[in-house]
Structure formats: structure tokens, C-alpha cells
Amino acid sequence: MDNIDALRTEWLERVAAAGDAAALEQVRVAALGRKGRLTELLKGLGAMGLEERRAAGPALNGLKDAVQAAILARQGVLERQAQGVRLAAERVDVTLPVEYRAEGRIHPISQVTDEIVAIFGDMGFTVAEGPEIEDDFHNFSALNIPPEHPARQEHDTFYFAPHADGHRMLLRTHTSPVQIRTMMRHAPPHRIIAPGRTYRSDSDITHTPMFHQVEGLVIDKVTHMGHLKGCLIEFLHAFFELPDVPVRFRPSYFPFTEPSAEVDIGCSRKGGELKIGAGDGWLEILGCGMVHPNVLLNCGVDPGIYQGFAFGMGVERVAMLKYGIPDLRTFYESDLRWLRHYGFAALDQPSTQGGLAR
Amino acid sequence: MKTTLGWLKEHLQTDATAAAIADRLVALGLEVEGIENPGARLAPFTVARVIAAAPHPQADRLRVCQVDTGAGQVQVVCGAPNARTGLLGVLARPGTTIPGTGVALQRATIRGVESQGMLCSASELGLGDDHDGIIELEGAPALGTPVAAVLGLDDPVFDIKVTPERGDCLGVLGLARDLAAAGLGSLRARDSSAVAGTFASPIRVHLQFDDKGLDACPYFVGRAFRGLRNGPSPAWLQRRLRAIGLRPISALVDITNYLTYDVGRPLHVFDLDTLKGDLRLALGHGGKRFTALNDKEYQIDDQMTAILDDDGLLALAGVMGGASSGCTEATRTMFLEVACFDPIRTALTGRKLGIQSDARYRFERGIDPAYLVRGAEYATRLILELCGGEASELVIAGKEPEWRRQIPFRASRVQGLGGVAVAEAESVRILESLGFTVTGLGEDMLVTPPSWRRDVEGEADLVEEVIRVHGFDRIPPVSLHRTHAVAAPALSPAQRRVRFARRALAARGMVEAVTFSFLAPEQAALFGGDQPELRLANAISAELSVMRPSLLPNLLAAAGRNADRGYPDLALFEVGPQYRDDTPAGQQTVAGALRHGLAAPRHWRGGAHGADAFDAKADLLAAIEACGGPAERAQVAAEAPAWYHPGRAGTLRLGKAVLGHFGEIHPAILKAFGLPGPAAACELFLAALPELKDRQGRTRPLLYRAELQPLVRDFAFVVDQDVAAEAVVRAARGADKALIVAAGIFDLYQGPGVPEGKKSLALSLTLQPTARSLTDADLEALGAKVVAAVAAATGATLRV
């Protein structure tokens, strides 16, 4: 059996010494091929006597299995080595930049409008719309603003040239005509908001000839000033995401509401920086009131049965306050740097349950 | 509207501080825009006495004064001629900023003599133009006390924004009345008891209006004065007018201004010596020119209320008096006008002529029609006090217009509309303290508003009066009741689609812009716009004078501005209105998108390309798909509006409806906008998409998953160059609509191997067997069908 051990040592060494797949194949053929050394020895078993064969058979077969296993193992090693070499050659510079995928932006006016819709939507409001080229009736008369009313002067209305029959169209100066259209088209109750473009002939550091408002209207049989306060306070807390921001209602005047109020939110101006929240100052943020009985009458709604409130809010203004955008005029400049900086990602869809802003 | 605290306290007995008054004014709806105490900037200036004034050793015109500050002695070099021993003056110490010059005072040595302060003149304190010398204080004020109080300047000035319906609060009296009702003090009445006339007025007043103009001036109270001395008004009156920003002129003029602000009662004074005959008020003096008190000339028309004498036009009623009949320091006889002018006519006259005056401001908001005689008596008392002389009997024309009206009022409405429980007695108290008369009880009250509250018309106004005095802050906030336990969607399907389009384009890397709805007419014309009915009559500028016919011009202009700033590669979009005409239906919501410069930037892996029609087409299809629109079913036609490149643009249609356009921008348009290009754009007409139904359920059809694997077969066809790829695809798919489930073009080739005027299109078809696996024979048969179908439809041959 010394012979077997020597053979084992010899062939295992030869397997281990095979440096690549071809050399290993040579060793395999030399050992286990048809004329291989071990194959020959196994063939020789048949010529042996019983006793001798009983001793040599298992030894030779064991040797064959061992060499075969060693070849397989060596094969794995050699394959891994070869793969390692290949992979090393396949190295790339992973610091190279990926393909540029431009990230789009949503304009702050759209985003903030979506935020406002999300909050009022949660309170059961639906979104109503109306045309921007309006007539005198919807923009003024129906809203209890007769032609001579001083409030008309404050609206700085854009007019179109008169038609042949004398009537002339105008650009709506507020979103309030949507109140009229809503009440004339549908029977009460109403609970709508109407965001949209509005126009006034005014252009300076704090005015642009076009701006955006959100109108609100609630009409039913029970809604009173307390509901107006509750609704708007809850809106402002949700919108500014500041549940403690103070809100103040002070009497004011609009021809289409009675009583009328202006709404301020608390702010501080410490160090010249305007911050919404509890502070020493107030910022006017929207106008509101109980819908004037004349307006209801003008829309064919019986003020003896129905009542409710309306409000109007500047979208740019609340956007500027919430997101710290300093200059109104920049909203309309379409400056890429501004849009990228103040804009919002496409997937930032505001909702009350998922959050208004990232 | 401005007033000072001291002035207010003449009408209101109160101990409240300026801050408390301001807070209450705001709570009452009288917004305080500012409180400024002119005394505050004078705080460092104190009373001091010159105890010795000696000549300056080096300068004849200077004096060296030893000054007792009350807390010690300082030396001041002073150049004023009136600097003398014993003078009580105003001392500023080094470090103090002098209001008149804005410069901080320095310790100085003047010609070798040290000066440790300055004795100030009125102009140095910013109090007037008196350059003659330093201020000499009267009386015996304590040395060292601040001079603001001594000069009567320690009186905060309120600047109040009065809403247009509250004409009554354009007088200090009105403010005081509201404050008194709110419990901040009690009202003090001015003495307006009658002054007996000592002679008959030499002139009379005639209201000469026909039926149409009766309302122009229903009531006129006048009075003649003689023996007047019209000099400067006394210091208290000048100080008061200056405090609210008015320039004192002469006693008579100052009195008219004073009453305008004190009780909201505009007056006019005519120099009686300049008048010829009686005063007449009439309409219909059109065509005349008129020189007003401000020395400007105005053209008068037939609708303006004129005040005339025998010689012609004297004044524009309620707006402005004339230069020829105004009072001067030489005036000895005068005629006082206390009239009631129609708000609308006054407003129209002022607006037409561009005259803004304190009188117009009050008349157009409505003055108290019951305060003419009392106003005249109050003015008379002041005139006689300040100018001496004597007053005639009153001259009265017309009569007090009827202002009394009863408004039914239910006490329960304060809670029902105002949302706050206010006891009935308190509601009545509030109304009465504001001057309303209340009769009846509970749900059957009748309320008569006072003559000065023409704005109060109905029950809602009365509720507002009660709750604004009670306090809006005392209305408990109540949440709206929920109409649904779970809120229904706020947006309609069409509104949701606008949002989808916007976010889909942003998701494609585009940046949303919001641009003006109007633009320059020449830009509108390039895009088929500039119709007469869409031109603004009073545009801010020509660049913003026409409603836009398309979203693209503004986006192109924005691209130009960004390119000029160094950002030529951009992808901008807007979702908003464009206008076909001035009807509601003429306004369409459109998603417009523009790519300019590189649509894909340079990259080390390649792929950079300028914006082209296929970028725009991809944007358009993505937006349609996001809107739930049938991007698959839409047909592309190689045609587009004139602002697109005629050979590189298309229109997407669904049946007859045009969903949108896409393509490269026409070079002429690029040139008009000064853009280097390349540029490609698309426009999606959101309303043209098939209506999304508000479905009852959202169930989707069951998913069918074939058991057999799909196969892909490729074909290459040679077709004429102008054959549309879509025609090839459509024909191929039509060969077996059941088996062929997808088709795509994966190669386009022109060049060697393909004849001139032809192109090779490589098509890949996905086959989905259902019943059994396809055999070679099946595939061969299908191939033949495809080739035949494509050949029949397009004249294609299979490329070999």
C-alpha cells in the first residue's frame, strides 16, 4: 500500500501544480484518461487474485475519487482566478457622473394653490371656476358695487374696447364673480373655493397687473360669523403649519359682505426679518365677511332663508409669507434660477394626510 | 384721516393712552396705519436759560453764552442776533441729531472758544422756516424739561385708514363717537348754538336745477360776514393743521380746513367783495374754462355742479373753489358756504378733472345732511373769535334732504348672523350710543340710523354695528360642520386633469412658469391673435395690451430672457388660459411647453441633442397620457399652425378633435423673438381630451395572462421617403389584429444599399399566441400576410 500512498501524493501534487485550465486537463488525462495511469491500474485489478483484489480495489478506487475531487476543486480555484483577472481588467471609473436627468419644477403659485385646495377640500369645499374676461354685472353690479361706488375706483379695472351695442368687457378684478356664477347656476347650499387669475391696472414694487386670488363661499341656512372665524383660523393654522399662530379679525368694509372683516396673522419683524408666528406685529392676509343680502338677492337666493360667508385671499401673498419669497414681481419673470430655487418637485403633491410641504 | 391725541380729547373725555385708543380704533374697523409722536424726535432738546451773553473775543457776530441747563451750567457759542441774557431757549447737547439738518451735534471750539451745545432755531427743530434767530420760549417752563411739551408738540398723531363707507369718520368727531360707544370715554359736544345775525346778507342763494339735477345740491346754508381781519391763525390752530400735514394759510382758510377735519364738514369761503350779485348753483355750464384755487385751469362740462355769480363760474361745487373769489389776508367781507352736494356728481367731477381735495373726498363719501345749520353756527363762532367782525342772518336755500329711514331689526340676528350672544339691552345701548334711534323690543325693533350714517341700509349693517363695538374678538370660532365624514374630492375630473398635465411635464424635467395673460400685439399677431375685442382699452403698456392667443409667445420671450442671462438650454412650460374671443367659451386651458437649446446636455456617454420635434412630441404624449387621455389612439398628422416648422411639426387628433400640436418652432418666429434655437414646443388643449366620467366604480377589467410565451419577429421594409412610418406600422398590425399585440419601429436607414428617394424602416412585431404554439408554417404565413398588407398600404417592399 506504500505504493498507493506514493501515488496519491504524486497525483495530488500534480493537480495542485496545474497552473491553468489546460495544464489541469493534461493532468486529468494523464491520470484518469482512457490510457491514464490510474485508469491503467484500475484495469489491472481484473488480473489480480481475489485476496489481492480485495485489498487493492478499494484503495485504488479511493485514490481515483480523491484525484477526481482534487481536479474539480482545482478547476474551481483556477476559474475564480481567471475571473478575478478578467474583472480586474473590466474596472470602470465609478466617479464619472451619471446621465443628467433634469428635475422639473412646479411654480410656487401652482403649488400653494394645491395646498390651499387640499386644506379646504378637507373641509368639504369643491373647486369652482369662471372666466377671466368678465362683464360688469358679474364683476361689479351683482356684487353690490354700483357704477358710482367709490370702491370701483380702487379696483383699477382693465377694460376692453366697447362693443357696437355699447357693452364692454373687463378683466375680472377679483375672483368674486365666481361666487355670482356659482350661486346663479346651482341651488344652495354652496361650499366652494375659486382660485384663479385676477387683474388690476397697477404695477409697482408690491403690485403686478396680474395676480392670483382664492375666493371662498359658504352658503347655507346656519353659517354665521363664528363659522367664518373658525374656518379661516383653522385654514391659516393648517396652511402655515403653525398651530399657534395668532389670527385677528377686525371690522372692515367690502360692498359685497356685511359684516365685513379683514384678517391679520401674527408676525415678528425682529432684526428686520419677517417671521409668521406669535410676535409684536400683525400682517393683513385676507378679506372676508358675511355675504351681503343684496348679493344673494342679485343671484336669486332668498336672504331670508340663506346666509353665509365669503372670503378672498392673495395667493402670491401667502406664498411669499410661507416660503419667504421676497419680491412679488419675481413670480412672473420666468427666471430659471428663481423657478429652480423657489419651485417644487413634481412629486411634492400637497395633501392634508401626507403633508403640505416636504 | 389724521388727528392728534389732544385734538381727539377735545371730543372725547378719556384717560386712555394713545396705544389703547389705537387698539380700540382697529377693533372698531378704523385701521390705524401709524402713530407718530413728533415730540419723540425732540426728546433730547430741553429748556435752558441764558444767564450771561458776552461778545465773542474773536468774532463780532458771535456771542458766548453761559447757559443754565437746570442741572448745571454750559458754555454755548451762538450766532443768533436775539441771543441775550435772560432768554429762555431750547438747548441741544453734543451727540443730539438736529432734525432740521439731520446732522449730529459735535462738541466744538469756535474761533478759540469752546461750545458745549447749541441754542436752536425753529427751523433747526424742523418746526418752520423762521431763520431770524433762536426760539424764545414764553411763560415759565422749568429748566431742563423737554421742550416738546412746552411747544405743544408732545401730541401723538394718528394716521387712520377710513373705509369708503365711513365718511362720518373723516372728522375727529366721528372717531370720538365710535370710541365713546366702545366704552373708551364720553363724548363732548362742540358749541354750535345759534349766533344771532346782526344784518341781512347782501346776497342770496338760488338753487337752479331742473328735474334731473335736483339731487346735485338739495340744501345750502350760507352767511355773510363783515368787518373781518384775516391774518395768520393763532398758534394752536396752526400747530393742529401742521400736525396733520396741512399748511396754515390764513385764519379764514384755516377755519375751513379745521372744520373739514374736526367735524367732517367741508366749507367754502368767498371773498364777498369779489362777488357780483347773488350766488346761483346750476348744471349746464359746459365749455367754460375755470381757474381753480390751485391756479390750474379746467374745462367744465354739463354734468358738473357749478357755483356762479353774475360774472360767471366761481367754484366747482364740493371739489374746489376758484382763484378769483378766494379769501386773502386783505379780505374784509366774506360769504360762507355750508352745502350738501351729491356724492356721485362730486366724485365724477373730481375724477374727470383729476382734482383730489379734502372737500371732494368727504362729499363723495357723504357728509352729514343734518349738520348744515349747526356746522354754520360752529364755523361762525370760530370766525368771529379769530377774525372779529359780525355775522349776517343765515341764508338758506333748499331744504334738508330726507335721511330718516326705519330698519326692522331682530335682536336674535346678532347671534344668528354675527355668531355671538349679545344681550338685547347691550345691542340697544351700542346702537343708541352710535346715534341710532331704537324703538320696539326683541324681534320687532325698528332702528333709525343717524343722519351721518348713510351706509347703514339693512339688518346686516345693524348686526355689524353691534358686533364691531362688542368686539369681533369676542365671537367664538366654530368649525364648519362636516358635510361628509370623509371629504369628497375637491376637484372635478377636468380640474384634476390640469393638475396631471402640470405634474407630468414637471416630471419630464420641465420647469413651470406663470406668465401674464396679456402680451404685445405684434407677438399676438404672430400666433393668430390681436383681435380687436381682445385689446385692452387701458393697458399698462403696449407690451401688455392684448390677451394672448397662445402660451408659446410668453414662453419664447422667457427663453430669450434666460438665454440673455446665460441660460440658453431650458425646458419651460405653463398650464393656463389662452383667449380666442371675449366670451367665457373663448377662454381655453392649455398646457404649453417649450424646449430651447440642448434637450439633452453633452455627456461623456454621448446622447447630446438639440430640442427637436420628437422631444416636443414626447412631452405632448406624456401630458396626454398623464391626463388619462388616449395617447395610443390619437392620430398624428404632419400639419401644424404657422408658428411651427412646416416640415417638422405635427398635430394630434382624436377623430375631429385637435388634441394638440407639437414640433420645431418656425425659424421666422425664432428670429422675431431673437432666439438662436433650436426650439421645439407643444400645446395641449385640455378641454379637447375626451371627457373623463365621474365613474361610479373604479373596477378594472380582469387581467388576461396568456399561457404561451410571446414571440418577436423583425421585418425591414423599403418605402418611399414620404411614406409615414405610422402607416407602415398600422398596416403591419392590421395583418393580424389578434396575434400582433405590439409593434415598433427600431431602425430608420437611408444610404448605400437603399435606393435614392427611399428609406428602410425596421419593424419589430410582438406576437402573442393563445390557443397553441406557433409552428414554422404559421410564422411563415403570418410573415407573408404582413408583407402583403404593408405593400398594399404603402407600396413597401421587404428589404433583403
What does this structure look like?
The complex is a heterodimer of chains A (358) and B (800). By secondary structure, chain A is an alpha+beta fold. Chain A folds into 2 domains: 2-89; 108-342, BirA Bifunctional Protein, domain 2. Helix content of chain A is 41%, strand content 19%. Chain A contains 12 helices and 10 strands. In chain A, the strands form 2 sheets. In chain A, strands 1, 4, 5, 6, 7, 8, 9 and 10 form an 8-stranded mixed beta sheet that branches. By secondary structure, chain B is α+β, with helices and mostly antiparallel strands. Chain B folds into 6 domains: 2-37 and 156-187, Phenylalanyl-tRNA Synthetase, Chain B, domain 1; 40-150, OB fold (Dihydrolipoamide Acetyltransferase, E2P) (Beta Barrel); 205-398, Phenylalanyl-trna Synthetase, Chain B, domain 3 (Phenylalanyl-tRNA Synthetase, Chain B, domain 3); 407-470, Phenylalanyl-tRNA Synthetase, Chain B, domain 1 (2-Layer Sandwich); 493-688, BirA Bifunctional Protein, domain 2 (2-Layer Sandwich); 711-798, Ferrodoxin-fold anticodon-binding domain (Alpha-Beta Plaits). Helix content of chain B is 25%, strand content 27%. Chain B is built from 19 helices and 43 strands. In chain B, the strands form 13 sheets. Chain B has a 7-stranded mixed beta sheet with strand order 29-32-33-39-38-37-36, sandwiched between helices. A 5-stranded antiparallel beta sheet of chain B has the order 6-5-4-7-12. In chain B, strands 15-18-21-22-23 form a 5-stranded mixed beta sheet, with no helix packed on it. In chain B, strand 21 and strand 22 (312-316) form a beta hairpin. Chain B starts with a strand and ends with a strand. The mean pLDDT of chain B is 92. The interface between A and B is large, with 93 and 102 residues.
